[in-house]
Amino acid sequence: MTTLPTEATADGGDGLLDALGGCTVLGCRLRVVRTDGWSWGPDPSELARGAVALLPRVLRTHLADALHRTGLPIAAAGVAPQSGPVPQDVEVTVPVRIRAHTSLGELSAAATRAQALGDTSASPGPGAAVPLHRGHAGRVPPDGPAHLRAAGSPTDAEPSAAAHDTVESEVVRSSGLPMAAPPFDRDRVLVGLLHEASACGVLDTVLARLGAETLRLLLSALDAAGRRTTSAPGPPPTAPPTPAPGATEDALGTVAPSAPPDPDALTTALLAALRSLPSAGRDTPRTVTPTGPEPAPGADGTPHARTAPVPGRSREEHHFGPASGTITNTDRALPFLLLPPLHDRGYLQGLTAVLTGGGARDADGAAFAACLAHKVLPPPVHGWLRAPGDAHAVAVFAGATTTAQGTPDTSPPDLERRLGPLLPLLDARLGLQAAQGHTATSPLLLHALAADRLLLLDLDGLYPVWEAALPAELLRPWELAGRPLVLLPARSVASGATGLTHALDALGIGFVTDLPPARGERLSRVPGPRRCWTNTGARLPSRSAPDDTLVGAARRLTYEASRAARFVEALVELRPAVRAGRAPAVERSTTLAVGVALADLAWTLWSQREATDPVDALDRFADLGARVLFHDSTVEIRLPLGARHADLYRHRLLADVPDVPWFGGRTVVFTGG
């Protein structure tokens, strides 16, 4: 039973229900049906809230017309007379079906208006589901009202886009909300990445990989962000701690940061890292090696800087990428499916800050996008030769001018030199989110690809947690994951990675391995028929007996080793982002980003019925094609209708992705047809 309010509501009710003494509805069912297109915008739940907010107006209009025809003193416009008897009780015993036509813009505006006025009828209840996936940082809400786009041409029942904007602007103006999102601030995003790394205890590890010019850039960003914070009214913004989705707050088993770090502490850490560099590295001036033709110089002879796009630009400033109206087909739509998970984690926003802060060229964003695409396309022949269809898929996803092999006009060494120093900040964001989303009672697995490349994997979904060059760099991510037991299979340890068990034992990391103990190592035999060993004094976060935990880990060792080997073979060995040894930082960052995005896809779609890993998503979406349409401000990805499209849509994995950096800040929109 629902009693509609008699006072003014979010839709501007005029008092008909008040004149009737209220209206009680028994068993109301509200259904929203699209009549055109397939996209519901970035937040479909907002449309349901807007429909609930518009319900009193729809009901008032229907009641006014129905009661006027019965002879009651109700005006056809729905306004109760100032005088005259009005029946106190009117009972309708038959089902009442009301059909009303509205638009996406009106639904979004009604939801925004109801939220601004505190209308509880349009707000989700305390038990409402939050669309978060395991390991996600959560979709970052837009700064300001969301503008929902109707796919396809507007119908007669829907007003034009200009009418939608007018309705929404009036709602925002009357509610006091900001009219537009603030411009992209590179310095604030870079400082936010530093805050996350510092709050989670890996700032020293990240700074150790940075060069002198990158450290100076971060110092400049920290100073610029501080000046803007002190000059802006209101309290200074703080960087919230990274949440741990997928688990309740009291069952995380992680070390949560208590407060954002002091900017003075960040400055001290940056200066200390700069002083620790050799004198030759500190005195090296910051230079950027150009690639390709230089832009035309200005009036004073100074060449104009060519930087990556900044989100929030107007559509006239989309200088590069395919022209509006370009339509092409691609046999590989999987690279585009990586964008929603990466956007949810804030990776694309951080990448934009890295592109604009690292002296990148316009083509560098497209080159990095091509590296992401290389990770999910079929393996190249001889390690570098790609089929023409795959080269075309890389070009479409990167939105760039390509060579014969589909590689954008930026060499891997140039990309490594300009972006490589700042990419560890993005790696820290993704890796620490995966660590904080880990269940403490579930083991981790350590795979040593080489002596200086240690990959830590979460067995639940096979999320890549962290990639380190030294065993000591694994300590803090292991602590954030809840100090779980670590599986170290013999087949996952490269021949050159000697002394790994001794290093882990010295750090206090408990492990189970089938590697025989070396001379001088104090390892205990795990009970059971399998020849496995563990280091003594390991802290096991389990309520069961320690022997049961160790025996269970030993039983899983062989199976989990095969899963990890399958992951490494598919995403590292067979699908390099660049040729071996030419850009190690780019290779490491793209492996982590693609591994997390594919793990999100697999976990969201199939975790309820099977154990998932990123290779499942890689195999099952490998042959999914799409039709790509480039518009002024959007890039439309039209997927073929079928079971896979329905599954992706049902699990909200086809949300709009705004401000994609290598598309000139355009929004990627998924439709079907």
Automatic annotation (TrEMBL):
Q: Where is this region: Disordered?
A: 117-168, 227-327
Bias class Low complexity marks the residues at 264-280
Put simply, this protein is called Uncharacterized protein
- Organism's domain of life? Bacteria
Q: To which species is this protein native?
A: Streptomyces olivochromogenes
| Composition skew (Pro residues), residue ranges | 233-244
